[in-house]
Design goal:
Radius of gyration: 14 Å
Helix content: under 10%
Number of strands: 8
Number of helices: 1
Order of helices and strands: EEEEEHEEE
Distance between the termini: 16 Å
Structural class: mainly beta
Strand content: over 45%
Largest sheet: 4 strands, mixed
Length: about 110
C-alpha cells in the first residue's frame, strides 16, 4: 500500500495555509479525493487512501485562499490553481509539500 500526504505553507505570511481547497486526481483526471487543508495546512483525510503505483495530480486552489486571507490579487491572478503532477513507484509513504506565495511556489518529495 502506498500513502500520500501534503502540507501547504504560505511563505508570504510565514504560516500554514489553512482552508486551501485540494483535490487528488489520477492520470485520467478522475477525482480520487477532495477536501481542504486544516489549521496546520495539512489534509489528514488524504493519508487514508491506499494508492497504486502510477501518475497523479494534486491541485491546490491558491487564488481563492489568498483572496480569503485579504491578499489583493491582480485579475487574472498570476497563480490560480496549482497542479502538481508526480509519480508513485513503490509501496510506502510519499509526502508532497507546497511552499507558496501569490507569485511563486516550490515543492519536493518530503518524508
Amino acid at each position: 500500500m502506498t500513502t500520500l500526504s501534503t502540507h501547504v505553507l504560505d511563505t508570504s505570511h510565514g504560516r500554514p495555509a489553512a482552508g486551501v481547497a485540494v483535490r487528488l486526481c489520477d492520470a485520467a483526471g478522475t477525482v480520487l479525493w477532495q477536501g481542504q487543508t486544516d489549521a496546520d495546512g495539512r489534509c489528514p483525510g488524504l493519508k487514508t487512501l491506499a494508492l497504486q503505483a502510477g501518475r497523479y495530480r494534486l491541485v491546490f486552489a491558491m487564488a481563492d485562499y489568498f483572496r480569503a486571507t485579504g491578499v489583493e490579487l491582480p485579475e487574472p491572478p498570476f497563480l490560480d490553481q496549482i497542479p502538481l503532477e508526480f509519480g508513485l513507484t513503490a509501496q510506502g509513504h510519499y509526502h508532497v509539500p507546497l511552499l507558496v506565495s501569490p507569485f511563486g511556489y516550490s515543492t519536493y518529495r518530503g518524508s
